[in-house]
């Protein structure tokens, strides 16, 4: 009888489907209205909190998105707004996402500004909960575990590897040196830095599939930040770009997991760093895996997140920095020659550069820093404050607001700004290419070393010449880029341009 009743109930069920559909639609409508109401309340709260920080006029729906046309004029607009609105101004991306843009070092000196977490959601990235996006005790624990991996004793042996990668790239440039045509250098530099970072982090080179996945992910993360509807996880997930993002994430994670699996097999025989270092140079993955020996500290997912973070952050930002440094030196031949003379003297006829040589090129280092000031690889440092923040002039930013620190200054290439006496006379937060405070870039020494190595070997071998017809169109995305690439001409150093 129970079976018969069940069959009867099932047979009657189709007649109730329209009612179920109506009920479901009504439920979804109620949820949507509640969500929209909550967002509108949040928007009014943000507008009230930002009243003390006027900014450029914003569209009620799009905010300032339409001002950022991705045509190479965005940075000029931000500079203009910085002059118009002193210290800080508000920007809106869509109706609900706002930033407080800080562009003065006195505001950056405010207590705790650099102590708080990244503003963007972890869902924007493929990196997992790594150092870039984690917070609280997890961030503190992992930062403490990973810091030894960037000690100079660990980094010292890898100067030769950086040098080898740079020389491979420079060999490929021989064909350009024999012509009077300019060429786009960012792609070359990016492949070189990715190759270096992967060997340094895991002693493995990237597959073509992995390299393509990293490029796709970089593009898609930038796209998601710019497109307001994509800030919603569901909308992005259902979009074609969301599908492409998940596909690239799968490729990247598979590659990293394979690297971790193979290295874990190798380390079953040796679990102490001293013994491993006696056989070969330690890398970032050795530090991570050996940190878990005898403790339940880092899971495979944690390790993958940190390796992905290191490789993604480390290659794209450094590639941007190197590319714009070479461009700046091409545009300033007198400074380029001073750097070359210094490098030739430091290398003493060698065709490579070693750890001890990095401290012998102070003028070149000042030129690198000046280029980083003019063309910062990470043009904005976004933080979400956890408590109300009152600045020196009495204005207050409410808890939960995002502060985006942007440094603005005149567009003159002057390396002497970084003479010790000039540095000591200004705010320590007037130059923050690697952020500041406890959440500063853990790999900044690594990045500076690689920039010095590549610039030194390039200037030893080639003269860099500006192409006045192909000026870069700068776009301040997560990493500074040029819409039309970065083009220069080169000649061997023993030839005149």
From TrEMBL:
Keyword Iron: yes
Cofactor dependence: heme
Keywords for the protein's UniProt record, in alphabetical order: Heme, Iron, Membrane, Metal-binding, Monooxygenase, Oxidoreductase, Transmembrane, Transmembrane helix
PROSITE patterns associated with the record: CYTOCHROME_P450
Catalytic activity: testosterone + 3 reduced [NADPH--hemoprotein reductase] + 3 O2 = 17beta-estradiol + formate + 3 oxidized [NADPH--hemoprotein reductase] + 4 H2O + 4 H(+); androst-4-ene-3,17-dione + 3 reduced [NADPH--hemoprotein reductase] + 3 O2 = estrone + formate + 3 oxidized [NADPH--hemoprotein reductase] + 4 H2O + 4 H(+)
Residues binding heme: 441
Enzyme class at the top of the EC tree: oxidoreductase
Xref: Pfam families: p450
Entry's Gene Ontology molecular function annotations: aromatase activity; heme binding; iron ion binding
Documented EC number(s): 1.14.14.14
Family in the record: Belongs to the cytochrome P450 family.
Entry function: Catalyzes the formation of aromatic C18 estrogens from C19 androgens.
UniProt-recorded name of the protein: aromatase
Naturally occurring in which organism (per UniProt): Myripristis murdjan (pinecone soldierfish)
Encoding gene (name): LOC115374158
